[in-house]
Structure formats: structure tokens, C-alpha cells
Structure to design on (351 residues):
């Protein structure tokens, strides 16, 4: 990486000063229609001196830690360094021209005047070089900052998703084991059936742990196993209905999200009803969104709706995975019924 940057630097150096030389030749022909015998040697001296002194300026900038971002207290040092290079550059050019006799004897001026002329006419080249050098580094610094910001946001998102998942599975297992425990003494055969269903659920959830999304069909199967497990505990007090558009089965959804919402409906809704209740799972396309709806018997508990684990985890996961394109709400719809709605953008799935 360091070698490639060094190569790029030298290509820019040579290309920039060569471009300057060609520009001077062009203007010489345009405005004078000819070049005299001292024009090219003096132009060569200017270019070679420019290469040497701008490289020296770069080395000083690096050693004195004057590259962007520059601390406010170092701006005076940067100014002195640039002015010193300008003076040395102009002085060197003047001395070489005087020593080699590359001037018109009829128009010879003193070394002092030539030096002053060089300072006036050569300073802009050094200042242009410094401007390009610093603009390059500020752009590079800004690009690196953006890349680091994106990487940091991705890392935070990954950590938050893993944190949410690590809470979902223990939460689900705890409730499922309570359901099985209630059956062990009363009906061992059904308890064994419940253990088999729990095994299926855990196997699916462990596979889902490796993914950020899973096909809705796979998530629906987990929910069916979960509700079959809960039906053993509630028996006839739990009524389940599904209204599924088969075209939505391939749509990606966050793993264990639907199961968490159904579990929330059982725990805070049906579980609190003396006579049990009704739960309905709906999946359909509406307004270019994939809508998941869970309707259940019960009334909305303000505390659980704002602070409950299932509600918060759903909102957080949708925000992390889909940003502002997804939405979640839970509300009372009357007749002792609660409705939770998840809206996710439709994903085009190619088989």
C-alpha cells in the first residue's frame, strides 16, 4: 500500500511539472512565435528545481507532522516552511542561471533583481503545488473517515442484532419449558409429544441464528410448532387460524420475529383470559409491502406495549435490517382483540 502511494506521488510529480513545461512552451509559441536558445535550458532548470524543492517541501511536511488535519498552533510553522522553500527555490534558480550564463547579455540584470523576479513569478507554482497537495490529503482524509464511519455503523448493527438474538432464544426456551413442565405429571404422552415439537423448534432456531433473514415459510413452520406446543397446554381454550397468501412464503423475514410476537400474544393476551382465546396469523401483500398480522384475544397493556421484550426487539430488528422502510405497530381493534402489524418492503426473490 505504501509502495503504491509512493509510485502515485512520483507520477503526479513528474506529470504535473511536465504539464507546466508544455504549457510554457505553448505560450512561448503563441505570444512570441519563437523560442530563443536560452529558453529550453532555463525551462529545464525551473522544472528540475521544482521537482527537487517540492519533494523537499513534502519531506519537511511529513517530518514536522504538517499533513492534514493540521493543528491550529502549527499553521505558523507551515507558513514559514512554505516561504522558506519559495526563497530557496528562487535563489537556486537565480544562482544557476547566473553561473551558467543563461541570460541575454544585452538585457542582463543584477542577481538581486533576477532573484526578486523569480520570487514573484515562481511563488505561484509552489503555492499551487501546496494547494493541490493539501486538497488531495483532505479529500483522502474525508474518504477514510466515511469508510470508517460505515464500518463502525456495520459493526454496531451486527453487534445489536447478535445481542437481540441472544435474548430471543433464552426467552423462548424459558416459556416453552414451562409449558412442558405443566404436562409432565398430568399427561406424559403429550409431554413427550411436546418435547419433540420443542426439539423441532430449537433445531430451526439454531439454524436461523446464522442468518439475518429467513424465508417466511420457515418462520411460519416454527410458529406452527410453537402453537401446537401451546395448544397442548391450553387445549380447547386456544383457537388458532391461519390466513396465508402462498406468494409470501418466499419473502425474507427476521428469524424468530414472528414467533416472538405470537409468544407475546399468548403470554400477554390469551394467557390472561379465563376462557382462553383466539389467535390468527395473516400474511399478505398490501401497498407494495409484505404485511404480517397477528390478531389475538385480549386487551393492550400499556406497559407491555412500550417496554415488553417482544415489542422492543421487533422494533429494533426492523430498524436495523430495513431502516425506515419497515414499520411495526400494535393496537386494540375492539371486541376484546389486539392486533400487531409488521410491514416490510417487498423483496424480489429469484429462484
Amino acid at each position: 500500500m505504501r509502495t503504491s502511494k509512493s509510485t502515485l506521488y512520483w507520477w503526479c510529480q513528474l506529470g504535473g511539472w511536465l504539464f507546466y513545461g508544455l504549457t510554457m512552451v505553448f505560450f512561448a509559441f503563441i505570444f512570441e512565435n519563437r523560442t530563443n536558445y536560452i529558453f529550453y535550458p532555463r525551462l529545464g532548470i525551473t522544472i528540475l528545481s521544482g521537482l527537487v524543492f517540492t519533494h523537499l517541501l513534502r519531506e519537511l511536511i511529513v517530518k514536522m507532522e504538517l499533513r492534514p488535519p493540521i493543528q491550529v498552533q502549527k499553521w505558523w510553522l507551515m507558513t514559514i516552511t512554505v516561504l522558506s522553500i519559495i526563497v530557496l527555490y528562487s535563489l537556486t534558480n537565480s544562482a544557476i542561471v547566473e553561473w551558467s550564463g543563461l541570460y541575454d547579455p544585452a538585457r542582463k540584470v543584477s542577481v538581486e533583481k533576477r532573484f526578486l523576479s523569480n520570487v514573484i513569478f515562481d511563488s505561484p507554482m509552489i503555492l499551487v503545488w501546496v494547494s493541490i497537495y493539501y486538497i488531495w490529503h483532505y479529500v483522502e482524509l474525508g474518504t477514510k473517515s466515511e469508510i470508517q464511519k460505515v464500518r463502525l455503523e456495520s459493526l454496531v448493527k451486527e453487534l445489536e442484532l447478535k445481542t437481540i438474538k441472544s435474548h430471543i432464544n433464552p426467552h423462548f426456551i424459558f416459556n416453552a419449558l414451562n409449558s412442558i413442565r405443566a404436562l409432565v405429571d398430568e399427561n406424559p404422552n403429550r409431554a413427550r409429544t411436546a418435547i419433540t415439537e420443542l426439539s423441532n423448534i430449537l433445531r430451526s432456531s439454531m439454524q436461523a441464528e446464522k442468518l439475518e433473514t429467513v424465508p417466511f415459510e420457515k418462520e411460519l413452520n416454527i410458529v406452527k410448532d410453537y402453537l401446537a406446543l401451546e395448544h397442548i397446554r391450553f387445549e380447547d381454550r386456544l383457537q388458532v387460524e391461519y390466513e396465508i397468501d402462498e406468494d409470501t412464503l418466499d419473502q425474507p423475514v427476521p428469524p424468530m420475529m414472528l414467533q416472538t410476537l405470537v409468544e407475546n400474544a399468548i403470554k400477554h393476551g390469551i394467557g390472561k383470559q379465563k376462557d382462553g382465546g383466539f389467535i390468527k396469523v395473516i400474511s399478505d401483500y398490501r401497498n407494495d409491502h409484505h404485511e404480517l398480522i397477528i390478531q389475538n384475544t385480549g386487551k393492550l397493556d400499556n406497559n407491555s406495549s412500550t417496554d415488553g421484550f417482544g415489542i422492543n426487539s421487533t422494533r429494533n430488528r426492523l430498524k436495523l435490517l430495513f431502516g425506515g422502510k419497515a414499520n411495526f405497530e400494535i393496537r386494540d381493534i375492539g371486541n376484546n382483540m389486539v392486533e400487531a402489524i409488521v410491514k416490510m418492503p417487498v423483496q424480489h426473490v429469484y429462484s
